[in-house]
């Protein structure tokens, strides 16, 4: 991170951290912000809380929302009522983008080409080619067919960082099913990997993780909360984080939630236009709101009260 022409002494900072972060890490962060960089004021907050602030700002009539934040390291399910975090309902699924990319690397290395050292390239492959299946077993059958009957298979051209700076997926009508390409391009042929990798978000047990899938985690979270609030959460499930950009993720999650939720409750899964920056945009809104000064800690407060004032104000 590079910051130019910023005087920290006159600057306020918002910094995000995971739910239930270790107190030792929180105290170290306080020291870095106030003692090393000497920010004028600071706010430590969960990314989900910023996203909830954005949601309630955009939907002023909503009472509750359930944030599903599926990012790099893990997926969090966090319920909010009027921007207030309900800690008893927070659930974590230990599946994130890093695990999906690593799993795809292992599959490709076993089946085709050693790519264990090519994390950046395979992460791009994952983002370009993978999708969430709506009918897993039907797609699995199609992926085993031969020739043009196989509508799942795709050929991905790997970058050589000379003439091809970034990899890309060949259009289906340009794919060669018999023989080899004459262009000399290095090709990855992907079939069931395209949907089997994102499937781990729904069935972590596929790779031996003793964890709930995202739909079960959502239901478990809502069931732990007062019954009169359930309807409000089911109709305001909000997706943020990079994994929510998989094609078909929102539709599959909504379908599975519909099958798990009580029949009389409406279910709606909402996806913002930019789920990756949704929390950042929430922080921007918060920083310009009249309530901002009430939630932050100033350097003077910290110097007078130490870590105690941060623990009191930052509801992490």
TrEMBL record:
Pfam families: Actin (PF00022). This is Actin related protein 6. Belongs to the actin family. SUPFAM superfamilies: Actin-like ATPase domain (SSF53067). One of its GO terms (cellular component) is nucleus. InterPro entries: Actin (IPR004000), ATPase_NBD (IPR043129).
